[in-house]
Design brief:
The complex is a heterodimer.
Chain A (H helix, E strand, L loop, with lengths): L1 H26 L6 H13 L5 H12 L3 H15 L25 H6 L27 H7 L14 H23 L10 E2 L1 H8 L11 E2 L7 E7 L5 H17 L3 E6 L3 E3 L1 H5 L3 H11 L9 H11 L1 H4 L4 E6 L8 H14 L2 E6 L12 H6 L5 E4 L3 H5 L2 H5 L3
Parallel strand pairs in A: 3-4, 3-6, 6-7, 7-8
Antiparallel strand pairs in A: 1-2, 4-5
Helix pairs in contact in A: 1-2, 7-9, 12-14
Chain B lengths: L3 H10 L6 H13 L3 E4 L6 H12 L3 E5 L6 H4 L1 E3 L1 H13 L4 H8 L5 E3 L1 H6 L6 E5 L6 H13 L1 E4 L3 E4 L5 E6 L7 H6 L1 E4 L5 H11 L5 H14 L10 H13 L9 H6 L8 H6 L2 H11 L1
Parallel strand pairs in B: 1-8, 1-9, 2-5, 5-8
Antiparallel strand pairs in B: 3-4, 6-7
Helix pairs in contact in B: 1-3, 5-6, 10-11, 10-12, 11-15
Classes of the chains: A alpha/beta, B alpha/beta.
GO molecular function, one term (chain B): ATP binding
Pfam families (chain B): AAA_5
InterPro entries (chain B): AAA+_ATPase (IPR003593), ATPase_dyneun-rel_AAA (IPR011704), CbbQ/NirQ/NorQ/GpvN (IPR050764), P-loop_NTPase (IPR027417)
Amino acid sequence: MMAVAAGHAENTRLTDRVVGFIDHLRVNGFTVGIEECGGIAAHLGARRLTRLAQIRLELKTLLTGNREEWQRFDDLFEAYWLPSGKVRINSKRTTSPHVKNPLRQTPIWQDHLADGQPGNGDAPQVESETQNEATGDASGRLIAARQSIDRKTDLKHIVDPDEIRRAELLALRLAQAMRYRLSRRQRMARKGRRIDLRRTIRHALPRGGEPIELFRRATPDRPVHIIVFLDVSGSMKHYSRFFLQFVKGLVCTWMHSEAFVFHTRLIRVTDAVRDRNSARAMTRLALMAEGFGGGTRLGESLATFNRNYARRLTNSRTVAIILSDGYDTGTPQQLTDELAQMKKHIRRLIWLNPLLGWRNYEPVTAAMQAARPYIDHFAAANSLESLAAIEPELAAMS
Amino acid sequence: MTTSTDIAPRLANAGYVADDALATALELTLSLQRPLLLEGEAGVGKTETAKALASALDTKLIRLQCYEGLDASSTIYEWNYQKQLLAIRAREHEGQSADTIEKHIFSEDFLLHRPLLEAISQPKSPVLLIDEIDRADEEFEAYLLEILSDFQVTIPELGTMAAKSRPYVILTSNGTRELSDALRRRCLYSYVEFPDHARELAILRARMPDLEEKLAEAVIGFVQQLRKEDLEKKPGIAETLDWAAALCGLGVKALQDDISKVTETMICLLKTEKDIKSVPKETVSRLAGKAA
């Protein structure tokens, strides 16, 4: 009896520690609900204590939900349970709901995305090309800041923090609207090829089983599958922020979509971008995509995609969208090879180049020249309007 | 309660060598009766796990292969329309009333069981394998949530049918599409890696007991090294078994003594043109040397 009581006390202590461990996991980005927490506590309380290795495997099965968590689990477990183990990660919550502008919490983004806070001296400079555009001259910054957002305005010229946020929201909504218009699925159809037997018979019953009226069904449209590659190198600095929101809009609302960012290497960011908590999404992105604002190695990045992801993530309805200015430090030959390889896996390649919207720009860089033969749709993407213009390209496939 | 100490040997008896992580996951699936989601590269033995579990528990395996466009009627139930029409006609001649006919034609006799209904209608808990769930549409995935949490199906004409015995559910995914959080939360999770040297050797020995020990060692050493190469598609366990059988059939005794034969049989391991080109004879020779 004594032994049972002692065992029970031990279990209680263990359960307490497990609850602490679950909190530790949550701090590190795991999504563990209260229900799971209760279930695990009950499970451990109800069984005989086993070896630590066994508890570790059980908790791993119970608490992880995807590959990334599965791979990170062991380190986090050691950090929490083993005093002589790895250094405990004291990561602070960067995802407080009270933080109004999450980007200000992440220096990498602050720098790269040129968060236009007054007086930080980091705001994007209006370059000489502005004279070609609507916003005008060297004092364009102030003028642009006072103007309402025009869908035709070059995104580079939007510098006022409020306007930046509004433009971001517009980019997000634009992507969501595109998704809505493209994905409505028609299941019943008057001129469908197949007869809907179930419905026909149901409606025939009141008429004594005579199928007078025939109901038909058309094969539902398969939604377009989208893979977006966003260039976050230094030369894309002024555009990445808006494009990221556009990508977020596409990826969050599109059933079949994937997102990658690239600079000198390629990083799959689908999960981070999908994160509903935008502050956490930005933090995760910043941590994942270390090296923002550096050079671009487009060919190598695409090689990584072709090698590791293309087979799993593409199908005959895949449209790849590359958002890049095409300033590549790699060899044009590699870019050609990798694009050719990628084209085998996908249906269409859309390349959106923000510089194309500039009046005097010609895509003469070696990389752009090399890429041109493989691009199905090459368009400008320097304003919200030009982003919206890719919709017909996607609609043509659905 | 079934414990990991006895599930692993039972799986081994069924010809499946499970590592500790997988054995623990299966044990929890059995004790908590929650679905298990298995992810991992193609060829690591996810589908085999379900088959082995069914065999170890001596129960029925019901398999639902997912594909794009899969809908509820082809996975749960469907009325046998032709049979219903015939019955209506036959009963009309007998002069039965519409009410009686309707009651008759919407009975179990006319119901075609599809895998999910079949799984919850079994008297003894079966193993329900929902293979490659990532290939199915999101709508279907959402539909599955209800079945996986309540284990019951509602048929408008017959009412709700609750599970006679709760099936052990194993879902597999190759990562074609990201699965919803809702589905992940309802499942236990295990990521299946390629087997390590010892486990793969044990699998090979279990499947091909006649293979010479030295050759078996070399085969596994070679495949383990090959997986480290830059390949489009890494060879899975099934490929290893095929290759070992091919080598055996060609009478190869030691890999490094017969490099040309070994190179010829590489088609068992490498499944794309690019991979075959990227592993020339010299590489085969190097790997065979290492494996010896």
